[in-house]
Amino acid sequence: MATVVELITYPVKGCAGTSVDSTHLTPAGLAHDRSFMVVSVDGVYRTQRRDPRLALVRPTVSADGSRLTLASAQPESGHGALHLDVTTSAPRRDVDLFGATYRGIDQGDEAAAWLTDLLGTPSRLVRVPPEHDRKTDGLTPGTSGYADSSAVHVLSRASLAHLHTRMAERGAPPLAMDRFRPNIVIDSLPEGCQGEDWGAEPHAEDRIRRATIGAAELGYTKLAVRCAVTLVDQKAGARGGPEPLRTLAGYRRFSAGGVVFGAKFAVVRPGKLSVGDEVAVEEWGDAET
């Protein structure tokens, strides 16, 4: 049976993820996922596309969301860990995410100074306000915090293995799963649309329309269009070579533009998720092209 082999939440958009054995899937995604965002002093979101050093920030958040710790992947550089009491009562400010205006709660000068020093550019840290009511698009409507779009990104190991085979034909070495920043990694998916046979079919996640995992249910929204973030070495916080986009462009071009890898989902029913949970596909569809 297809099962969950990894769960990753990204408390601060664009920063490193945290693997967990179990978590609660909220309407906006895995608990605390993209609930914080680094912005410029003007409130414009920062992304690894322009600021790859965001990958060096290792955030962790307490279970109740009241405490946030920012640590550096390179502590020898002099950036010690910063422990913050999260505020949800400070004044709101406008923030820009892909040209859309949302609201954010600034987390103070100490966080701003720490991020500014590590990133080398003036930055602030904001949190999603409790009244955040963002609506996400796609086949299944939903909500999310500061994620690029839908709440949950699903990717299978079979898809990554197939990409590695294609890359090897070009003489390129394999890449870590973290290049693609998924929330839920699964070990395999059924070969047939009705799920009679279980195997390792690459990109079968593209065809899932409804799935139950643990106590939660997901509804498909769209394919995950990949960008220059996949070029960033997540351990070094620096852009590497042309892979994986060069290889993906050869076999995963999307008719609407760009290349795709993985699928996005909205949360239909919140609930607990755990590594080892079965992925029970309730409805299949045709992959978008």
Structure description:
It is a single chain. With 289 residues, this protein is mainly β. Helices cover 11% and strands 37% of the residues. The protein is built from 3 helices and 23 strands. The protein has helices at 109-119, 157-169, 245-251; strands at 4-9, 12-13, 18-20, 22-26, 29-30, 36-39, 57-61, 67-72, 82-85, 92-97, 100-106, 124-127, 152-156, 184-186, 189-190, 198-199, 208-213, 216-226, 232-233, 238-239, 259-269, 271-274, 279-284. The model is unreliable at 192-199 (pLDDT under 50).
List the main descriptive attributes of the protein structure presented here.
single chain, 289 residues, eight-stranded mixed sheet, globular
SS elements, strand count? 23
Strand neighbour order, sheet with most strands? 3-1-14-13-21-18-17-23
Give the % helix: 10-25%
What kind of sheet is the major sheet?
8 strands, mixed
Write the H/E string, N to C.
EEEEEEEEEEEHEEHEEEEEEEHEEE
User: In angstroms, what separates the terminal alpha carbons?
Assistant: 27 Å
Kindly state the mean pLDDT as a whole number?
94
**Low-confidence segments, ≥5 residues, pLDDT <50?**
192-199
Q: State Rg.
A: 19 Å
Helical stretch count? 3
Q: How much strand?
A: 35-45%
Which structural class do you get from the secondary structure elements? mainly beta
What overall form do the CA principal axes indicate? globular
Protein topology:
Layout lengths: L3 E6 L2 E2 L4 E3 L1 E5 L2 E2 L5 E4 L17 E5 L5 E6 L9 E4 L6 E6 L2 E7 L2 H11 L4 E4 L24 E5 H13 L14 E3 L2 E2 L7 E2 L8 E6 L2 E11 L5 E2 L4 E2 L5 H7 L7 E11 L1 E4 L4 E6 L5
